[in-house]
C-alpha cells in the first residue's frame, strides 16, 4: 500500500519537474513474474526506473537501510519500503544464498523483481561486469528477464550528490524479454551462469549505449579510491 501512496504523491511531481521518458514499456509483462535486470547509475534509479510501470517493482536492498536508529533511520526505512525494497543481508556466503531465496520467493508470488547485476552503482557512468546471481534467479525461477537500462541518471545525480540536477531528462529503456530456456536445469554450472549473465550485460550495453568494463564495479571503486589517496598523498 505504501508503495502506491509514495508513487501517487511523487509521480506527478517527478513528471512535471524532470519530464522523464520511457521506451519499450510494452515489453514488461502485464502479469506474472519477471526479472527486471538493470544497470545502476544513480540513487535516482529507484525513482525513475519504475515510474512509468503500472505494476509494482520489488527490489532487494541492503538490510542496513532498515536498521538505522532515530529520525534518519525511520526515514530510511520509510523511503525504501515506499519504493518496494525488501531487506537482505549482502555480506556474502550464506547471506548470498538467503538473498537468492528471497528473490525466488518474490518471483514465486508472481511479482516483478528489479535487480542490478553490477551489485552496486557505477562509480564513473560506465557499465561493469555482472554478478551471476541474476543468472541463478533466471534459471531457477524460469521467469523472463527484461533488460532495464537507465539513461542520464548518472549525469543527473552522480554518486555523492544528494539532490538531482535540473535540466537533465532521465529515461529508461525496457528491452525485449531474453529467453534462457536452453539452459534450464543447468543452474549449478558456473560456465552457464557466466554465459547467461554476460548475455544480460550485453543487452544492457546495447540499450544504455554505455562503455563496458570487464571488471566488477566494487573492485573499480576500490582502485579509484586508492588512486585518489595516492594522488592526494
Automatic annotation (TrEMBL):
- InterPro entries linked to this entry: Plipid/glycerol_acylTrfase
Is Transferase tagged as a keyword? Answer: yes
Q: Give start and end of each Phospholipid/glycerol acyltransferase domain.
A: 34-153
Q: Which residues form a coiled coil?
A: none
Output the Gene Ontology terms for molecular function: 1-acylglycerol-3-phosphate O-acyltransferase activity
* Keyword annotations from UniProtKB, A to Z: Acyltransferase, Transferase
Cited Pfam families? Acyltransferase
The UniProt record lists the keyword Acyltransferase = yes
GO CC field: plasma membrane
Q: What biological-process terms (Gene Ontology) are attached?
A: phosphatidic acid biosynthetic process
Q: What is the protein named?
A: 1-acyl-sn-glycerol-3-phosphate acyltransferase
Q: Which organism is it from?
A: Nonomuraea glycinis
Amino acid at each position: 500500500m505504501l508503495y502506491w501512496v509514495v508513487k501517487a504523491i511523487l509521480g506527478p511531481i517527478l513528471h512535471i519537474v524532470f519530464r522523464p521518458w520511457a521506451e519499450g514499456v510494452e515489453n514488461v509483462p502485464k502479469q506474472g513474474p519477471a526479472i527486471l535486470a538493470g544497470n545502476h547509475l544513480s540513487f535516482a534509479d529507484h525513482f525513475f526506473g519504475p515510474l512509468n510501470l503500472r505494476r509494482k517493482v520489488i527490489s532487494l536492498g541492503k538490510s542496513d537501510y532498515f536498521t538505522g536508529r532515530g529520525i534518519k533511520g525511520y526515514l530510511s526505512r520509510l523511503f525504501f519500503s515506499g519504493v518496494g525494497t525488501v531487506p537482505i543481508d549482502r555480506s556474502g556466503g550464506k547471506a548470498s544464498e538467503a538473498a537468492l531465496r528471497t528473490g525466488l520467493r518474490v518471483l514465486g508470488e508472481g511479482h516483478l523483481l528489479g535487480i542490478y547485476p553490477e551489485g552496486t552503482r557505477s562509480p564513473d557512468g560506465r557499465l561493469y561486469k555482472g554478478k551471476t546471481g541474476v543468472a541463478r534467479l533466471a534459471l531457477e525461477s524460469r521467469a523472463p528477464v527484461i533488460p532495464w537500462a537507465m539513461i542520464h541518471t548518472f549525469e543527473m545525480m552522480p554518486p555523492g550528490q544528494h539532490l538531482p540536477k535540473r535540466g537533465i531528462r532521465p529515461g529508461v529503456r525496457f528491452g525485449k524479454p531474453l529467453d534462457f530456456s536452453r539452459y534450464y536445469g543447468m543452474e549449478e554450472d558456473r560456465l552457464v551462469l557466466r554465459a547467461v549473465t554476460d548475455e544480460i550485460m550485453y543487452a544492457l550495453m546495447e540499450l544504455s549505449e554505455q562503455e563496458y568494463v570487464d571488471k566488477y564495479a566494487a573492485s573499480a571503486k576500490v582502485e579509484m579510491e586508492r588512486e585518489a589517496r595516492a594522488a592526494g598523498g
